[in-house]
Amino acid sequence: MAKLLSCVLGPRLYKIYRERDSERAPSSAPETPTSVTNPPSSSWASVFWSISYYSSPFAFFYLYRKGYLSLSKVVPFSHYAGTLLLLLAGVACLRGIGRWTNPQYRQFITILEATHRNQSAENKRQLANYNFDFRSWPVDFHWEEPSSRKESRGGPSRRGVALLRPEPLHRGAADSLLNRVKKLPCQITSYLVAHTLGRRMLYPGSVYLLQKALMPVLLQGQARLVEECNGRRAKLLACDGNEIDTMFVDRRGTEEPQGQKLVICCEGNAGFYEVGCVSTPLEAGYSVLGWNHPGFAGSTGVPFPQNEANAMDVVIQFAIHRLGFQPQDIIVYAWSIGGFTATWAAMSYPDISAVVLDASFDDLVPLALKVMPDSWRGLVTRTVRQHLNLNNAEQLCRYQGPVLLIRRTKDEIITTTVPEDIMSNRGNDLLLKLLQHRYPRVMAEEGLRVVRQWLEASSQLEEASIYSRWEVEEDWCVSVLRSYQAEHGPDFPWSVGEDMSADGRRQLALFLARKHLHNFEATHCTPLPAQNFQMPWHL
């Protein structure tokens, strides 16, 4: 009877993976779950519940206007609701009986219960053969584990890790109180916009209906990572209580030297590690750790900046203290909006090896203003700064290590005008802010002007023409930079170029721009080929 109850209340089983190791006993388990474990009725019920949840405010408003919320009308509705609940309970019982008569599901639920009681290596190995509702997966790594905070400075609290926030305006006490009262309606409006429309526009991958539509593709991607790449799935518990879904592919046992390096991948606003940018470093031979944003697929929570940073923190702690990688062997690779968590990691863990940002931007405000009406400019700016402040450039400038930016020359997402206007690509602004912070003397008027000319080039031929026009001597540039580094140390900002001619500053500016930014002739969502995934330049 206890086993039958476990089958009724147990998680949905999606797939039984084929055996990956020769040491495991052979099994006749099918590669796809049977219809007994996953009846269509339960799937439709979850979709119906999601639609009802999002449409409930409109439904209540409609019923109120029509007078259906009076006591005489509510009683019959409650009868219908009770009947519907009884039908759903009957469906759940039938599903449980079907699972109970299925030997594969009974074997799965036995392994799951044993793993929750004792997370031994053998139990985890057996559980890894199943893909099921991730809410029932046991936690593999906790942010408060003693070993995870030994080398951290202070560490996060339950309120979350530290973020850079806009500087407050200093006013008198009375003036400040008056301003707070005046701004209260605007702040409430900003909060409502951010937590309803804004968050879903910024992270459409967190919308349940989209995830439901993508479920077959996500399951197929997980199967490929587990069966073909020997990936290991894990659940991490962040400091805010969110559970983060991760996938680790270990290449340290291969003959390829890049397998000793770990690439942590940060996906875009509708990207999942199952089908996202993890494929690029995988094809290049690196060890890879992918993770899903809070609220994406198996990860819980909502993808606000604080939750994003909390998730990235526990992912890096997991890589260092559980997977055994040193910070010097970790590369953070991000695509699009994933640049926020990547630059936060670079700022907070300055010892990581390198940062690669593909199709990313400097700041969210210009891109948000692009898609909203001009009359909303004040509301949009305030909402982004207070609740959705993705300040990538500000965070990246706090990092001292090697950086590579990849600009899509036909990008239609992070341009503020049209894709053909390459100078409106916000990747340009990210490069300029980084170079101006690191080399302020080089990026004076002459240097800034010539780099802008180089960024306007829409083809490799035009780039080479501008580069050769100023007769950039790369050996001379390297020698100047190395001499400065040897004399003054590696920490940025540098004052190199202070006593240099205008031509010398132009040469250095072009040289540095070319080393920090590579062009890729593609649109925003085109997968980056493995040959374009390169380590950043450093002296």
From TrEMBL:
It is an enzyme of class 3 (hydrolase). Pfam families: ABHD16_N, Abhydrolase_1. Its EC number is 3.1.1.23. The chain crosses the membrane at residues 47-65, 77-97. Residues 262-389 form the AB hydrolase-1 domain. It is a multi-pass membrane protein. SUPFAM superfamilies: alpha/beta-Hydrolases (SSF53474). Residues 3-133 form the Phosphatidylserine Lipase ABHD16 N-terminal domain. Keywords: Hydrolase, Lipid metabolism, Membrane, Transmembrane, Transmembrane helix. It is found in: Membrane. InterPro entries: AB_hydrolase_1 (IPR000073), AB_hydrolase_fold (IPR029058), ABHD16_N (IPR054518). Coiled coil: none annotated. GO terms for biological process: monoacylglycerol catabolic process; phosphatidylserine catabolic process; prostaglandin catabolic process. It catalyses: Hydrolyzes glycerol monoesters of long-chain fatty acids. GO terms for molecular function: monoacylglycerol lipase activity; phospholipase activity. Gene3D superfamilies: alpha/beta hydrolase. GO terms for cellular component: endomembrane system; membrane. Belongs to the AB hydrolase superfamily. ABHD16 family. Phosphatidylserine (PS) lipase that mediates the hydrolysis of phosphatidylserine to generate lysophosphatidylserine (LPS). LPS constitutes a class of signaling lipids that regulates immunological and neurological processes. Has no activity towards diacylglycerol, triacylglycerol or lysophosphatidylserine lipase. Also has monoacylglycerol lipase activity, with preference for 1-(9Z,12Z-octadecadienoyl)-glycerol (1-LG) and 2-glyceryl-15-deoxy-Delta(12,14)-prostaglandin J2 (15d-PGJ(2)-G). This is Phosphatidylserine lipase ABHD16A. It comes from Oryctolagus cuniculus (Rabbit). The lineage of its organism: Eukaryota, Metazoa, Chordata, Craniata, Vertebrata. The gene is ABHD16A.
